Amino acid sequence: MPEIPLGSWIESLVQFLLDHLDFVFNAISVGIGSLIGALESLLKFLPYPIIIFIFAILGWRLVRRNVGILVAFGFLLIVNLGLWEETMETLTLVIVATVIVVVAGLPLGIWAARNRKVQVVTNPLLDLMQSMPAFVYLIPALMFFGLGRVPGVMATVIFAMPPVIRLTTLGIQQVPAELIEAADAFGSTPRQKLYKVELPMALPTIMAGINQAIMLSLSMVVISAMIGAKGLGAEVLRSISRLDIGLGFESGLAVVILAMSLDRITQALGQRHQSS
Amino acid sequence: MSKVEVKGLYKIFGDDSKRALPLLEKGFSKKRIQTETGLTVALQDVTFKVESQEIFVVMGLSGSGKSTLIRCLNRLIEPTQGQVIIDGADITALTPNELIQIRRQKLGMVFQRFALFPHRTILENAAFGLEIQGIGEERYDKARDTLKLVGLDGWEGSYPDQLSGGMQQRVGLARALANDPDILLMDEAFSALDPLIRKEMQDELLDLQERLQKTIIFITHDLDEALKIGNRILLMKDGQVIQVGTPEEILQNPANKYVEKFVEDVDRTTLLTAKHVMTRPDAVISTKDGPRVALRRMKVHDISSIFVVGPERKLRGLVKAEDAVAAVKAGKIDLEDVLSTDIPKVDPDVQVPELMSLVATAKYPVAVVDDTGRLLGIIIRGSLLATLAGKGEV
C-alpha cells in the first residue's frame, strides 16, 4: 500500500499560503513586531526597582504580603545574576502572546458556547493544537514570519490558545439555566445577557484559562528561542550548546521565578472574583 | 377586557413539533404520540382568562405542564400554537424587540430556586430589571424602596449567599416588583422554602397584594397554598385544563373524579398536623456552645430548657436548666456531657390527636423534625391549645 503523502500535502498548503497570502503575514509581522518593540522598550526603559516594586505590590495586594516579599526577592536575584534584560525580553513575549490569545480566544470561546456546531468543529482542532509537540509549530512560524520574535510569539499563541477557548466555553455553559431564564424574563438583550450575567459568572473559569495560557506561553517562549526569539530561552539554549551547567541553572531559575510570580498573581485575580 | 387571555395554547417539545397537532385532533393519546413520533405534548388546548388584579393560581402535580404554561406567557418557551393576549396584544406575534419591551414593562417573574445573580449585591439584584432598561443612578433609589417593601432594608450591600432561603426569595420578589410590572408571574415561588417561612411568605404576598393590586399568576403543586392565596384556581393535569373556579367552587363542585380525589386529599391535609401547630424555635443553641451560653439564653428567653442543634439545624438533643447549672458548678465546659438525647420528637405530618397525648405527658416542648433530623419547629402545650381553640389559622 502506498504511503499517504500527508507530509507533502501540508508542505504544498504552506507553500500555497506563502505564495498567495504573503502580504497578510507581512502585515501581521509588522503589527506584532512593533507591539513587541514598544513593550520591550518600555520594560527596558523603566529602571528595574520600579518594575520589581510594581510586581511586589501586585503580589502583596492580590495574594498576601509574603508573596509580595518573595516576588521582590526573586526578581532581585534575577538582577543579581545579570539576567534582568533577558527576563524583560521574555516577559514582553509572554505578555504580547497572552494579549493576543485573550483577544482571539475569548470571542471564539463565547461563540463555541453559543453554537454547538462551532464547538464540534473547534474541539478536535483544540486537541490537535494542544497535543502537537510544541517544536513542530516552529517550522511554519519560521516559514511565514522568518527568524526572530514574531514567529516566536505566533507559535506561542497557537500553543497557548486552547485553554482560554475551552475554559471560556465551559464557564459560559456552566452558568445555571435559571439565571439565563431570569436574565431573559426581565427583558435582557443578548448582549446584556452576555455582559451582565454570562461573562461575570464565567469569570473565575475564564481567569483560570488565562492563567493556564500564561504558563504555557512561558514554556513555549523558551522553546521559541530556537528560532531567534531572544530572552531567557536564548540563555538556556546557549548553556546547552556550551554544556555550561552553571548558566543553564541560573537562566532556568530565572524562568521559574518569573513563572511562579505570574502564576500566583493571575491565580489570585481569578479567585478574588470568585469570593465576591 | 381581561388582563391576560390564553387561547388554544399548545406546546409540543421535539423536532418539527407541529406534526403532532393533526394527530391530537384525531384523538391520539399523548403516550401514543410519544411512542410513534418521539414528540412530547406538554400543553394541549389550554384556554383561560385572568382578570386584572386577581391572584390566579395554576395548580397541578409535577409533569402537569404548569411550569411550561407560565413560561409560554412571557415566551421563555415558545408556544407551538395558540395565542397569549396581554392587554389586547398577542404576545406570540411580537418581534424579538417588542417582546423585550413587554418583558421589561409588563411582566415580572419570580422563580422557584430564586435565580438571584450571585455576583451582584442584594441592591444590584433588585435593580437588575431597571438597569437593563438603561435607567441611571435613580434605579438604586427605586430598588431600595422595593427592598424596604419586602422587609429587607439594611441588607442592600450583602450578597445572595449570605441570606436565608426566605430572604433570598424576598429579593426575588423585590427584583420583580422594582420594574413596577402589571403582571407578576410566580413559578412555584414558595415551594423551596421551609413550611413556616412558606406560610409567612404567603401571608406577606397577600398583604402586598392588598397594597399593590397586581395581576398575579401563581404556579403551585400545593393545594393548600392554592386555596389560601388564589382568588381563582386553574387545575391542570397532563397538559390540559381540568377545572377553573374559585376555591369554593372547586371544593363544592369538583368537575370530575380527578378533582374530587384532590378535594378528598384537601380534607385530609387540612386536618391539623404537627406542622400546623408548631412554632418557630426562637431559642436554640449549637453544639459548639457551652453550658454557660445555654443558661444565659434560657434566661433571656425565660425558658427552662433549650434545644441543641448541630450543623444544618440537625437536632442533637435538649439541655435542661438544672443540668446546665450542675455542669457549670462542676466546671464542665462541654455541652455533650449534659445533653438529654432521649426526648420526644415528631414528624411534621403527625396528626393532632396523636400529638395531644404526647404533649400532655411531656415535661418539655416537643421537637418537630423532618426525616433528615432537621429541627423544623417546636410544640408547646400552650400554643397547641391556642390553635385548637381557634386562635391559630390553618
Commentary on this structure:
The complex is a heterodimer of chains A (276) and B (394). Chain A is mainly alpha-helical and 276 residues long. Chain A has one domain: MetI-like fold, CATH 1.10.3720. Chain A contains twelve helices and no strands. Chain A is globular and about 65 Å long. The model of chain A has no long low-confidence stretch (mean pLDDT 90). By secondary structure, chain B is α/β, with parallel strands linked by helices. Chain B is built from 17 helices and 16 strands. In chain B, helix 14 (291-301) links the parallel strand 11 and strand 12 (305-309). In chain B, helix 7 (138-149) crosses helix 8 and helix 14 (291-301) packs antiparallel against helix 15 (321-330). The two termini of chain B are 35 Å apart. The mean pLDDT of chain B is 87. Chains A and B meet through helix 9 and helix 10 of A and helix 4, strand 6 and helix 6 of B.
**Strand share of the residues of chain A?**
under 5%
Greatest contact pair? A-B, 19 and 28 residues
The count of DSSP E runs of length 2 or more, i.e. the number of strands of chain B, is 16
Order of helices and strands of chain A: HHHHHHHHHHHH
State the total count of DSSP E strands of chain A. 0
Estimated helix fraction of chain A: over 70%
CATH class of chain A: Mainly Alpha
The biggest beta sheet of chain B reads: 6 strands, mixed
CATH architecture descriptor of chain A: Orthogonal Bundle
Low-confidence stretches of chain B: none
Task: Sum up the structure in keywords.
heterodimer; A: 276 residues; mainly alpha; MetI-like fold; 12 helices; B: 394 residues; alpha/beta; six-stranded mixed β-sheet
Quick gist of this model?
The complex is a heterodimer of chains A (276) and B (394). In chain A, 86% of the residues lie in helices and 0% in strands. By secondary structure, chain A is mainly α.
